[in-house]
Amino acid sequence: MKVVALVGSLRKDSFNMQLVKTIEKRYSNRFDMEIAEIGNLPFFNEDDEKTPPEVVVNFKNLIAGADAVLISTPEFNWSTSGVLKNALEWLSRVDKPIAGKPVLPMGVSQGAMGSLRAQLHLRQVLSSIQATTMPPAGNEIIIGAAGQKFSNGELTDEMTLKFLDMVIDKFVEFVGEQNN
């Protein structure tokens, strides 16, 4: 199974990137994962949607070739980041490579509520662009108090890791069901 991850934070020491890299390492026996670079995408412009720059074409092809997508979002002003929203705008136009694609939203923040509100907005956007999101009930990876749960660049909190194991198991099954 090939999974592409989008990380909605460009910060060098992003907890969302640390979460994705933890997943990449921890579940390398379950799937191959590639982290898409979204910080280099130009701002979406309808004038360019039919003939996008090569970086956008490559990004869209990466998503089209994936079996599933993970999206890890920080919470900025109760919503997703602009860089993540921009990437989703490109994926929603013309050939729409994310339409019908199984997606697992997740996120990390320093606050007590994690990225709850950002994920609510993310799910609205994913619904509008016809992505197939994993049902949220019991599957929401919302990690708050990040500074206490990550160490040396990876997630180390045992309770959170056990929950992550459970959700990733269900996600792999979900992807299998969606792709049959």
Q: Treating each run of at least 4 consecutive H or I residues as one helix, how many helices?
A: 6
Helix content: 25-40%
Rg (C-alpha, Å): 15 Å
Estimated share of beta-strand residues: 15-25%
- Strand and helix order: EHEHEHEHEEHEEH
Shape estimate: globular
Decide which structural class fits the backbone.
alpha/beta
Low-confidence segments, given as residue ranges, are none
Give the domain tally.
1
CATH homologous superfamily - what is it? Flavodoxin domain
Main sheet summary: 6 strands, parallel
**In CATH terms, what is the architecture?**
3-Layer(aba) Sandwich
**Topology, number of strands:** 8
Q: What is the residue-mean pLDDT, rounded to a whole number? A: 96
- For the termini, the CA-CA separation is 13 Å
Pfam families: FMN_red
Organism: Filibacter tadaridae
Protein name: NADPH azoreductase
Family: Belongs to the azoreductase type 2 family.
Outline the fold blueprint.
Elements: E1 2-7, H1 15-26, E2 32-35, H2 54-64, E3 68-73, H3 82-91, E4 102-108, H4 116-128, E5 132-133, E6 141-143, H5 146-149, E7 150-151, E8 154-155, H6 158-178
Parallel strand pairs: 1-2, 1-3, 3-4, 4-5, 4-6
Antiparallel strand pairs: 7-8
